[in-house]
Every structure is written in structure tokens, then in C-alpha cells.
């Protein structure tokens, strides 16, 4: 398997468009690899570095994993892919099952960090967490509180990942 290096500035539109219907965020702790569907994310420049910010709710298994491994990959579809992948990874928890196996995903060795890419969603951003923060509910505009933060849903943690490598996995 080869990796075609990309300049993320050439793919920013494609990555943002893919967030609806969803992309994957993959983490690895020990031997456990877990992918979760995300629909929120920010791509930009902070601290003179290219950054992807992920917004992960408190109760996600992914949040526990991120706090341990402090790195992640972003996995974006290119062309055709099985929509079921996003359904499984967006509704089941890695606490209860091996989603990589259930969703039929193929981990691909990374370049810089320790977390794999995913062959089936081949546009890959390898990200190293530089900063994380729990959002504070009293700072939200009321409209946002009403729409997104009822008691049951839990707050979001933001993970600012420096994009240390970006490529498309090819056969
Ligand atoms: C389209 C879609 C987008 C989602 N976006 C997010 C997101 O940005 N942040 C988040 O915390 N959960 C998001 N979710 C929910 C998680 O993917 C879901 O709760 C998942 O089962 C968590 O997996 P985990 O427990 O293995 O981490 C999304 C789900 C779907 C279907």
C-alpha cells in the first residue's frame, strides 16, 4: 500500500464537505484501535501550525482514549465507500465491541504517529494533540445551550491536533 502525500490546503474544501454525512476519527491505546464518526471539526492554522480541532462529547469512549494517547487520525472518504461504516462507528461504542472488525475496516500503518489510518476512508490526517479543553457551559450563547447542551448530552472536549502528516492511502 502506498501513500500519496497531499497539501491540506488543496483538500480543505473536500474535507469540510465530507463532514456531512461524516468522517472518522481513529484512536489507538495499546493494541486497541477504535474509530468514531464525527460531523464537527475545524481545519485551520494556530500556533503557526496546521491544526484539526475535534469536538468529542464527554461520554464517548474516544474521549477516554484521546486523554490517554493524545493523538488521532482523521479518515475521510474519497469516492465510493460503504455508508454502513459511518452508521456503525457513529452509533456503537468501542467500549462494547471491536468496531474495526464489525465495520470491516483495515488499519494502515501510520507515518509519524502511532495511530493507524483506515484504508476504506483513505484521505488521512495524522494529528498530535497540542492542547485540549473542556468547553464551559456558562460561556455558551443561550441558543447553543438550548440546541446542543441539555443535561443528558454532556459537554464537548476540544482536541487541537497538529497535522503532522497528510496523505491519501492508495492500493
Ligand atoms: C454523522 C455523525 C456525526 C457525529 N459527530 C460527532 C462529533 O462530532 N462528536 C461527538 O462527540 N460525537 C459525534 N457523533 C456520535 C459518535 O460517533 C457516537 O456516539 C459513537 O458511537 C461514539 O463512539 P465511541 O464510544 O467508540 O467513542 C456523531 C455521529 C454521527 C452518526
SSE run = EHEEEEHEHHEEEHE
What share of the residues lie within helices?
10-25%
Oligomer state equals: single chain
Mean pLDDT: 96
End-to-end separation:
5 Å
Rg (CA only): 15 Å
Number of strands: 10
Give the low-pLDDT segments. Answer: none
Biggest sheet overview: 8 strands, antiparallel
Bound molecules: flavin mononucleotide
Protein model, in words:
Strands 1, 2, 3, 4, 5, 6, 9 and 10 form an eight-stranded antiparallel beta sheet that branches. The protein has a two-stranded antiparallel ribbon with strand order 7-8. The chain has 171 residues and is α+β, with helices and mostly antiparallel strands. It is built from five helices and ten strands, in the order βαββββαβααβββαβ. Helix content is 22%, strand content 41%. The mean pLDDT is 96. Flavin mononucleotide binds next to strand 3, strand 5 and helix 2.
Attribute tags:
alpha+beta; eight-stranded antiparallel sheet; two-stranded antiparallel ribbon; 5 helices; globular; binds flavin mononucleotide
List the helices and strands and how they pair.
Layout (H helix, E strand, L loop, with lengths): L1 E4 L2 H11 L4 E7 L2 E7 L2 E6 L2 E9 L3 H9 L1 E6 L7 H6 L9 H4 L4 E2 L8 E2 L4 E12 L7 H7 L7 E15 L1
Antiparallel strand pairs: 1-10, 2-3, 2-6, 4-5, 5-10, 6-9, 7-8, 9-10
Bound molecules: flavin mononucleotide.
Short description:
With 171 residues, this protein is an alpha+beta fold. Helix content is 22%, strand content 41%. Strand 4 and strand 5 form a beta hairpin.
Amino acid at each position: 500500500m502506498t501513500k500519496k502525500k497531499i497539501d491540506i490546503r488543496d483538500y480543505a474544501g473536500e474535507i469540510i464537505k465530507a463532514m456531512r454525512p461524516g468522517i472518522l476519527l481513529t484512536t489507538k491505546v495499546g493494541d486497541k484501535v477504535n474509530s468514531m464518526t464525527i460531523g464537527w471539526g475545524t481545519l485551520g492554522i494556530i500556533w503557526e501550525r496546521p491544526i484539526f480541532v475535534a469536538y468529542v462529547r464527554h461520554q464517548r469512549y474516544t474521549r477516554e482514549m484521546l486523554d490517554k494517547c493524545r493523538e488521532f487520525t482523521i479518515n475521510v472518504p474519497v469516492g465510493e465507500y460503504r455508508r454502513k461504516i459511518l452508521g456503525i462507528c457513529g452509533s456503537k461504542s468501542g467500549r462494547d465491541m471491536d468496531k474495526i472488525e464489525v465495520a470491516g475496516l483495515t488499519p494502515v500503518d501510520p507515518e509519524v504517529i502511532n495511530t493507524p489510518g483506515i484504508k476504506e476512508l483513505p484521505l488521512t490526517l495524522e494529528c498530535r494533540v497540542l492542547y485540549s479543553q473542556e468547553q464551559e457551559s456558562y460561556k455558551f450563547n443561550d441558543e447553543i445551550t438550548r440546541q446542543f447542551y441539555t443535561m443528558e448530552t454532556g459537554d464537548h472536549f476540544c482536541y487541537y491536533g497538529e497535522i503532522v502528516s497528510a496523505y491519501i492511502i492508495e492500493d
